Amino acid sequence: MVIIKVLLYKNLFIDLVKNLIYFTSDTLNYWIFPSSNTKDTAPVLFFSEEKNIEAGAINCGINILCDSSNIHLKAEFYLTTYLAGLIEGDGHFNVPKSLKNSKGKVISGGIEVIFALKDRPSAELLKTKFGGNLYLRPGRNLIRWMIQDIKSVTNIMNAINGKLRTPKINAFYNMVEFLKLKRVNIEKLPLDTSPLNSNAWLAGFIDADGHFAIKGFTKSLKTYLAIQFYLSQRRTDKSGDSLEKIMWQIAEFLSSKLSQREITSKYLQFIVNTSSAKSNKILIDYLNNFPLLSSKYLDYKDWESSNNIYVNRLHKDPVEFQKIRTLKLNMNSNRTLFDWSHHRQKIYGLI
Asked: Concatenated DSSP letters for 127-153?
């Protein structure tokens, strides 16, 4: 194992060190980020021959190296990429066509994200970090995170800029144009094309639309057994653009297949489904690097435990079989006990 820490002087790579930048070669991984040492006048470059380094550095996600003084960078990197994925999965940009209505009243644009009522702690966490307000949807078991004040909207727009991956970037650009009317200028950065396992975008997307499933494990020993994950998205965005490209990318990353489903004649879906040991292992490795924030994290951990029993064929033991069955019976909509200790993982700077 080799770690070399060097300083890059101001006139070198000046455009590259504004944010976390990743390079790769056949032998080394390179990560550049600004030094947090106030005595340093230059950014820091880490070279690593290994994906997971324990000595001298903290693993800030797949292939990311940070010393302890740069842990705040990890928190920002995680939260902003996660938020981009969450908004693209369950969010909406409310973009007015003008600053005022016909009666001269100022119209407020904003960003809205929908949560299940049981995930209120997650909504509260993001509200604390990024601003806005929470509103209950009576009778629908939903909660709306509404961000409408110009300061918070601008903050979120800047936070997720360059981190979007779906056609929802069109609505993002429309919001950029609306903010110009309020004298807020934001550069229109393109879609993020970095590897899916390089940041928390997919974790946010999964928290919005993913589902962890355990098939079989009933009283009947003849039922089909499987540990599966589903991620669904409508076939086209409201802009009319297809989501096929990003769903193909997710399917390829997970080494799984992309299928289509017709809910109604007007509502078609793309579905990524994992069930093989290989695909589930890829997903587990990713989510253990970039955890979920909602209560879906609890479903994932039960699903992971079940998968470990299943792939090692321990479920042949009636006791282990019953463990999976019990986990299944208390997951997803059946969950009644909630533990939010994953929000207190200081390594992610969430508190």
From this structure: HHHH--EEEEETTTTEEEEEE-SHHHH
How much is the pTM? 0.78
**For residues 273 and 326, what is the distance between their CA atoms, to the nearest angstrom?**
23
pLDDT of residue 160: 97
CATH class of the domain whose range is 196-348: alpha beta
Quick one: tokens of 105?
A: 């009243």
CATH architecture of 74-181: Roll (3.10)
What would you report as the CA-atom Rg of the chain, rounded to the nearest whole angstrom? 22
- Please enumerate in sequence order all residues whose Cβ is within 8 A of that of 141, keeping only pairs 6 or more positions apart, or say none: 116, 117, 118
Residue 292 identity (one-letter amino acid): L
Q: Predicted confidence band at 109 (pLDDT cuts at 50, 70, 90)?
A: confident
Q: Which residue has the tokens 């060097």?
A: 6
Buried/exposed 118-139: b ≥16 CB within 10 Å, e otherwise: bbbebbbbbbebbbbeeeeeee
